[in-house]
Amino acid sequence: MTGTSPKTPMPASAPNQAGGRWGDLGLRLMSSLVLAGLGVLSVALGGWVFFSMTVLIFALMAWELAALSDTPAQPLARMGIAALAGLGLALAQLQGWALVALAFAPLALALTPRRDARLIAAYSLAMLLSAHVFIALDHRGAVIVVWLVCIVVASDVFGYFAGRLLGGPKVWPSISPKKTWSGTLAGWLGASLVGLGFVLVEGAGWGLLAISPLVALASQLGDIAESLIKRRAGVKDASRLIPGHGGVIDRFDAMIGAILAVWLLELVVPLPLGAAL
Fold first, then answer.
1. Where are the domains of the chain?
2. Global pTM value
3. How far is 114 from 78, CA to CA, in rounded Å?
4. Which residues, 6+ apart, have CB-to-CB distance to 273 below 8 Å?
């Protein structure tokens, strides 16, 4: 990371690039394979490895949020906010009153000069809460984490290919110009297939079939929420840290929505998979 801003000019529209509608597929695929490998390793090892990987990812996301919004550029403040995000996540594992530590980075974002300070602070708080819940889910067993990741990946992959093959009306063109209804519905279908797979293979309850597309919907809303922040900042990508995907938030924004959806759903009904919360 450097002190330079990650901002990239927002194109006037979202036309296909020189490689056509599949122009970014190869680079996206390569980056996805690397990320998948790291993800599989962290889930398989669990414990401190999973915790450390989660803290690193969300600290980078906090850095990107600071870089997206600070005016003028404040390299040291960005690093400080990333450190506060990591520290807050670590302290929050103590439970009880320590959960207030999740507010360290959001408060720093709200109290330093930046655009849309309240929006950025609120988003960062939701982001760090989702990280805390994600770590708690891992404590209950890898199967829940794997199901959750598979939901997000299936929704993204099915949506990506359906959107490019079928096209059609946009969901919210002023915020997310590439997201189509065909891709959105395909994402729900992909999530349903993942849920069915876990019912048949892992013996999960049939209620997972209803929950899976709801979590996929939440993941899509997470993607739209981040698109809104980037649109207001006038950038295409949160940073250039991940080739083919942009920033870390660009890759993990859907996970924020999905994790929070699982957390909220479990306030109403138990998740028919893995150990109880």
1. 25-265
2. 0.85
3. 11
4. 143, 144, 147, 198, 202, 204, 205, 208
